[in-house]
Fold each of these.
Amino acid sequence: MNDDEMKAMNDTKRSQTDKKDQMNHDHMAMGHHGDMDHMHMDHDSEEEHAGMAKMQMEPGSMDHAAMDHMHMNHGAMDHMHMDHGSMDHGGGHMMHMGNLKQKFWVSLIVMIPVLLLSQFMGMDIHLGVLQLPIVFPGSDWLVLILSSFLFFYGGWPFLAGAKSELQSRQPAMLTLIAMGITVAYGYSLYAFVMNHFIAPHGMVMDFFWELATLIVIMLLGHWIEMNAVMAAGNAVEKLAALLPNQAHVVHGDSVMDMPLSEVQVGTRLRVLAGEQMPADGEIVSGSSSVNESLVTGEAKAVRKAGGDKVIGGSINGDGVIEIQVTGTGESGYLAQVMKLVQSAQANKSKAEGMADKVAGWLFYAALAVGILAFILWMPSGLPPLLNGWSPSSLLLVHMH
């Protein structure tokens, strides 16, 4: 076999080997292609998930300056955001109130037929041609249904507040109200059962009239109280809105805008005509009239020049001034005002504290007197009740 034939045979073997290797490679590539696609899809989904998580974790990333402003120093004054718990007068009972306005109006509407259909202190009232209560077949059942709705709907804020007070072992006004409406409703249920099932020829006075009026009056009072607290909270939010989002920071001969949260004490700021002062400071250049009415209540603009103090949130007049920051965040004037308002909301006044104490004492006194009266009157009231029972009356009750 000559050299040419040997070379041809080697080329043939090499070609066959290459084809076999190529087939193995293609098979492996096909085997791994799905895995690679799956890994690629997982990677893409992880990136999308991470992106979505980032968007959820950073809702203010699209407007960093606006979020800085919302966070009140925005950053340093976060605690000034008034939550519902801090508007509770420290007692925590406001959080149980719910929508008092809605509860009051609904309860007021439901109260009207209860007043017309039930007796007041067991008496009949004549108003000209109108005689109260209005009686018709089934009117007692209607009073029971409406009063039950009032107790569980309108009275729920007081029941929930009483539970909170009792859990903290500090019964106060809500506990006293809850006891009053619970006793009135419970005894009225007893009177209804007695009058309709057990002793229909007798007469046990109910207190549905008193129950309805008590719930509505208490809802009105607490609604007025909550409105006052919320108004103070809204005033704090309006104070926070006085500060701008950004400040013009002076660096040598250049001026650049910077988020207010990054401004530090000692920074030099430029305030243009008509703009709000971004922070407390001292004028170092220029003069202008400054309107501080939204901050101090002074209606007349005050003329200020170099060396004068300015308050963050006040409005610059027609001049351009430069100030050196003396107070930001918690050290600023607005922050101090908001802290005082928040403290006043969170702490009870002496009169309110005394009222809660008196309500607590009255709760214990009313509870003790009620239990004592029940024990003393039970012997005199039980025999007539038992004498009125007979097998026939038991059968009649069962049939009803």
Amino acid sequence: MGPNETGTTPERSRTPPTLGPTQAGKWSRIKPSKPALARAARAAGHRVALLSNSFGLDPFNPYEHVGIWDPFDVHVVSELVGLAKPDPAIYRLTLDRIGLPAERCVFVDDHAVNLPPAAELGITTVHATGEQEAVAELEALLGVSAVLAA
């Protein structure tokens, strides 16, 4: 196990990082469907993982800030594990942590390049090109209904 796989991060300054326009925009555009779908899936008995290519959690957790940390059973953040999508190893690590076989999992991503490695492992994939389409496809695959705020 590598040093980052323990969930700890190297000591850093506690000054919050400055987010560039692309990063800040990404976090301000989190769709309410993400936490709503995760909550609905968990309520139906599914285990739910967050797999993200990200800059990490230190000195603050941006996922928690926008409400998409708590709805997930497992969190795999690229900086913390030393891997990133589309490396197949990060999908295997996520499967190990969630404790499910690939054939029982669904992976959603808005970047098409990240889907083939997951599919090659036997994971069902959804290319999220639009929020409504992705939500509908996930609801059908998981047998859940995400209640979204109007």
